[in-house]
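fyi for ur records
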Amino acid sequence: MSDSFDPTPDDRFTFGLWTVGNPGADPFGPRVRPSISPTEIVAGLAKVGAYGVNLHDNDLVPFGASAAERDRIVADFKQACEDHGLAVPMATTNLFSHPVFRDGAFTSSNPKVRAYAIQKVMRSIETGIELGAKINVFWGGREGLETDAAKDTRDAIKWYRECLDFLCAWTKDQGWEQKFALEAKPNEPRSEIFLPTTGHMLHFIETLEHSEMCGVNPETAHENMPGLSMVHAVAQAMEVDKLFHIDLNAQKIGRYDQDLRFGSEDVKGAFFLVRLLEGTGGYAPYTGPLHFDSHAYRTEDIDGVWDFARGSMRTYKILAAKAKVFDADPEVQQLLAATHADPDGVAGLMNSYSGSNAAAISDMAHDPEAMAAVGHRYERLDQIAMEHLLGVR
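which gave:
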């Protein structure tokens, strides 16, 4: 049975090879599912209506593969994507699994390790270019420390900047139009990870030599792990045109990085995130890939993996439909218009500074007690949102 919530390639949904390919292993138990080859993943994603597939370099090409083996694997994968009509919008580099990165990649105290990390990213970008990727995500999983005795954080940030500046300049030197999306995470696997939130990343980007080609890749779980708001992180990125990519999943606050199916936890948070991305509240929508960086429960077999993939996409589309109806609700529009009302034109005085605007604000008569007595009806707005989510409105 199909309905309007079944995904299609027009929805721009993507998954990583590491997501549907996750075999269900965890620190306390081995894998529970057989491996799915990259070409099988491509076929499966096309079947469930995805738009594209993303990859770490070593998801596709095993670490240490020969040049000939690498070329064969990439060619077979590219052909599979063409055969099944899947795009490869994003590529990323695994700078965290191999023991060489145990003290970091771009922030390793060893300059040879930093040079190796740059070289590995260069090869990864080349693979991405060959497959058509326009976005490169950087997750610094090992960019951190366990003790501040190890290094001065100022040195680490400087090394981080040098590596990104080098890679931006090298990419430009090749004549490639690429975007770099930096992904934050507060902890795990390191005790402390540098630049732990999207806000940290946005500031860091402004210090880069080629900040124009760098943005962020916020992830729901990474923002929610410490109790932060993914909605606010994404809004901040969108407000400065730096949302280059996004990782959608779900997370219980205060837990390890769970990478749960999108919308399976904090449905209201997922609703407001989708509303933001879809632009139903009035701003321009996000038009990039909608990537699900998550995986099926360890309880699942291969069929359950595809249930997980379908469910991720369907939940997004259901929430998008509800967001559209919520923002078209006459009572919502009336309440928002009332709370944003500006009958005296005060907002215009603050749009830009001028001597006359400053004088007008300085001379303005205010009645704080009267303003403080006005309720904002946010309880009602939130309840309306809940009723739309619960399907009774």
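The chain has a mean pLDDT of 97. thats all i got for now
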